[in-house]
């Protein structure tokens, strides 16, 4: 009887651990989907219009301008 209760307790703990892992994997999947959406939005913007980055060199103080230009390919 004591062994039966002990095995039931172990099974419940394993089930809880599995559910916890499933929840964590679902959260990770959702975060990756959000990152994918942001990267896609940035890539689409780059393809539609130029993006300019203005950076100041920390050593010499000169301004550096980087422009990223894309050309949107027509879709069928």
TrEMBL record:
Coiled coil located at which positions? Answer: 11-38
Keyword list (alphabetical) reads:
Coiled coil
Identify this protein by name: Uncharacterized protein
């Amino acid at each position: 009887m004591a062994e039966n209760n002990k095995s039931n307790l172990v099974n419940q703990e394993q089930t809880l651990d599995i559910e916890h892992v499933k929840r964590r994997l679902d959260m990770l999947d959702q975060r990756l989907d959000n990152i994918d959406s942001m990267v896609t939005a940035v890539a689409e913007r780059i393809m539609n219009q130029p993006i300019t980055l203005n950076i100041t060199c920390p050593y010499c103080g000169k301004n550096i301008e980087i422009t990223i230009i894309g050309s949107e390919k027509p879709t069928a």
